[in-house]
Design goal:
This protein is mostly helical. The protein is built from 7 helices and 2 strands. Helix 2 packs across helix 6 and helix 3 packs antiparallel against helix 7. The radius of gyration is 15 Å and the shape is globular.
Length: 117
């Protein structure tokens, strides 16, 4: 997945504000459900400061790093996780060593807009 982050960074250099516009576009269609999904996703797949207990999910999402808002970072992570799920090599039913990395069900059940991504 790291290569996909690099592709997005490269594309963002050519199209400044891309992820901010994408976040606003999705928010316009989903409203509060997007915020709920971002919070749940960040809780399920915490970045290091959240994982280490240095910040709460809400504190993390209100911040930024290197000029990129953490909501945009979390949305990018959601897009990439959702994009990589159909990969047969990472299918937990075919590769039992990968099952620990998948927790799709709580996001789908609780937010209702996971499928949008």
């Amino acid at each position: 997945m790291k290569i996909l982050h690099l592709v997005i960074r490269h594309y963002e250099r050519q199209n400044p504000g891309l992820m901010t516009r994408a976040l606003e576009f999705v928010r316009a269609g989903l409203g509060d459900r997007l915020e709920d999904t971002i919070v749940q996703f960040t809780d399920e797949f915490p970045p290091m400061p959240v994982y280490r207990g240095q910040l709460s999910v809400k504190e993390y999402l209100s911040g930024s790093s290197n000029g990129i808002g953490h909501r945009q970072v979390s949305m990018e992570e959601m897009l990439l996780v959702k994009h990589c799920q159909p990969n047969p090599a990472s299918n937990p039913t075919r590769n039992s060593s990968m099952i620990q990395f998948y927790k799709e069900q709580p996001i789908r059940i609780q937010s209702g807009c996971w499928e949008t991504f």
